[in-house]
Amino acid sequence: MSDQDSSSSASQTEGEVETGGLSSFSSSLRAVVRIKQKYQAMKKRRLEAALPALGGDGSFTGAPTKTSPKIFTFDELAPYSSSCSVPQKKKRRRRKGVQYPTRGRRRAPPKPAPSRAKYCLYLLCVIVFVQVYNAIENLDDHVLRYDLDGLEKTLRREVFGQQGALEALLAHLRDYLSTYVHNKPLVLSLHGPGGVGKSHLGRLLAAHFRSVVGEALVLQYYVLHHCPLEADAPRCARDLAALVSAAVERAEEEEKIPLFVFDEAEHMHRDLLDALLRLVAAEQSNEFLNAVYLLLSNLGHAHVTRHTLHNSSSAAASGRQGDVVKELTPVLRKSLEELHPLWLEAELLPLGLLEKGHVMQCFLEEMTREGFYPDRANIERLAGEVEYYPAVGGRQYSQTGCKQVVARVNLL
Predict the structure, then answer these.
(1) Based on the number of CB atoms within 10 Å of its own CB, is 309 exposed (0-12), middle (13-18) or buried (19 or more)?
(2) Residues 45-54: what's their mean pLDDT?
(3) Which member of 269, 353, 357, 390 has the greatest number of CB atoms within 10 A?
(4) What is the pLDDT at residue 2?
(5) Contact 304, 328 (CB under 8 A)
């Protein structure tokens, strides 16, 4: 009985052992399966977040639907929209590296040498600055050389009643004499009745230029003295051209501007006018372009007299003599261009009539020059003997200007 009991107890013990081992193996297997399912679920979620090609419900197309075990909880990722796309990386441009020679050690590329053009540019800037500075200095040198301020004082002191014409004359001279390079000569033509101061003005200009440029560069040509006969006009034209050529050549050597004064120009013959027109033409060589020509004549005196008498009241009220000169210039040019084309090349300066007060100033100046005592009563008596136009607007204009002053003072 003991043997049977022991055998039965042994068999029971072996069955219990076998039952306990099987249950522990099945629980381990179930744990492995759960871990595998969990791993597959996590892998699926990662693929859904990374891959763009997903189905409409967020799963792979054609893949069986699986449910993950609800053992562990994870933060759910926001599902990607089907229209979203993975941003593509920009293709970076590969920079070519600096290639060094195979032999020897690597060295940095040499620095470029400084360009010589920069120094040439600096030199050019300095040259331009010096030239501009010299040009500005030359303007002052020319004005100082010809002493235009002194000339202005002399003209205003010696010439009476022609303030508008004097201002225009000095403006032309100042503009022309401020430099030595010109494209045409300066031609000034003074017009007016007898006795208004044309010849006196020409003599003052000639004397002033002699003192600054020399005797050889000033020519005073009196037509009735140098060429009175018309038959001698061709010879006079040749002689005049030779005199002017010699003067301008010498002036070119000395870098000065000569002055040529032609008094009584209304008596110049056609040959003389043609020769003078050729001399003042712009097609001449450079030395002929640097010269001042002064023409004195009574051409157009009727226009000057008529305009002065008709506009004396308005001119006196406004006190603008410069405007009278501007108004007379086109009238004179229209009448003179029919006589000869020379006056088309000239700057016209009309001189108006002189009043009684200007005639008295002429008597005072002449009597002082001759050494007489300037008695005002005597001056008024002498001025009253001069013929005048009928008074216009309370102003008396002399018919002969100051032409008779010298003769009457010599009779004292």
Answers:
(1) middle
(2) 70
(3) 353
(4) 45
(5) yes
Q: How does strand 186-191 pair with strand 259-263?
A: unpaired
User: Cα(210)–Cα(220) distance, rounded to whole angstroms?
Assistant: 11
Helices (H), 51-147: 116-146
Reduced 3-state DSSP string for 376-404: HHHHHHHHHCCCECCCECCECEECCCCCC
d(CA 112, CA 158): 73
Phi/psi of residue 347, each to 5°?
A: -95, 115
| Strand 347-350 to 186-191 pairing | parallel
List alpha helices for 51-65, DSSP H: none
**Rounded to 5 degrees, what are φ and ψ at 259?**
-125, 130
Which residues, 6 or more positions from 240, have their beta carbon under 8 angstroms from its beta carbon? Answer: 221, 272, 275, 276
Tokens of 279: 């001399």
CA distance 143 to 152: 12
**pLDDT for 173:** 93
Q: What is the mean pLDDT of residues 197-220?
A: 94
Predicted pLDDT at 243: 94
Strand-pair partners of 388: 398
Give the pLDDT confidence score for residue 168 in this predicted structure: 93
pLDDT exceeds 90 at position 63: no
338 phi and psi, to 5 degrees? Answer: -80, -20
Tell me the per-residue pLDDT of 120-156, one tens digit each, with 9 for 90 and over. 888 888 888 777 766 555 555 566 778 888 999 999 9
Residues 6+ apart with CB under 8 A from 322: 163, 164, 167, 168
- Name the pLDDT band for 359 (thresholds 50, 70, 90): very high
Instruction: List the alpha helices (DSSP H) in 178-226.
Output: 198-213, 223-226
Q: What is the rounded CA–CA span in Å between residue 351 and residue 193?
A: 8
CA 10 to chain centre: 131
pLDDT for the residue numbered 6: 47
Distance from C-alpha of 205 to C-alpha of 259, rounded to nearest angstrom: 9
Q: Residue 255 — φ and ψ, nearest 5°?
A: 55, 50
Q: 249-258: b or e for each residue (b if 16 or more CB lie within 10 Å)?
A: eebbeeebbb
